[in-house]
Amino acid sequence: MDIVISNAAGKPIYEQIASQVKLQVMKGTLRPGEQLPSIRSLANDLGVSVITTKRAYSDLEDQGFIQTVQGKGSFVASGNEEFLQEERLKRIEDHLAKAADEAQLAGISPDQLHEMLDALL
Questions:
Q1: Roughly how many angstroms between the first and final C-alpha of the chain, as a whole number?
Q2: Which of 27, 17, 32, 16 is nearest to 66 (CA)?
Q3: Given CA atoms 10, 99, 2, 20 in this order, what sign does their dihedral have?
Q4: Phi and psi at residue 95, to the nearest 5°
Q5: Is the Cα torsion angle 48, 4, 85, 82 positive or negative in sign?
Q6: Model pLDDT, residue 7
Q7: What residues does 67 pair with on adjacent strands?
Q8: What is the three-class DSSP state of 26?
Q9: Backbone angles phi and psi of 120, in degrees to 5
Q10: Is residue 60 within 8 Å of 21, Cβ to Cβ?
């Protein structure tokens, strides 16, 4: 599991960890049922506190991305394909909304924006 922490990222470290794990789950890099590193192991690897890693895992569990089994560890949640698809759609909608805002600021018409999107696809 590849996670890169940046002090210049402008968001808390636990959010950076959670968002990168979430992205890897959504991309399929981390598969359902796959075991994640222990909280302590990940904290050591990243050079952060155990509390920070625990917060990231807790947030991921609250959002349905991982499951923790007492005494066994944390695993990528299985059976959440519909949930993951909804998350993907939400991310796409967010990106499209930003693109539409930028297009409007640049004076690009909806038809021109459609043409640009069609060309990209």
A1: 30
A2: 32
A3: positive
A4: -65, -40
A5: negative
A6: 85
A7: 75
A8: helix
A9: -70, -35
A10: yes
**Dist. CA 99–CA 103, nearest whole Å:** 6
Segments of the chain scoring below 70 in pLDDT: 79-80
Q: What tokens does 114 get? A: 């459609």
Among candidate residues 2, 118, 18, the one with its CA nearest the CA of residue 63:
18
Contacts of 112 (CB under 8 A, 6+ apart): 103
For 49-65, the DSSP string reads -HHHHHHHHHHHHHTTS
**C-alpha–C-alpha distance, residues 91 and 101, integer Å:** 16
Token pair, residue 89, equals: 């759609």
The verdict on pTM exceeding 0.85 is no
**Amino acid type, 60:** L
Return the structure tokens found at 109.
């018409």
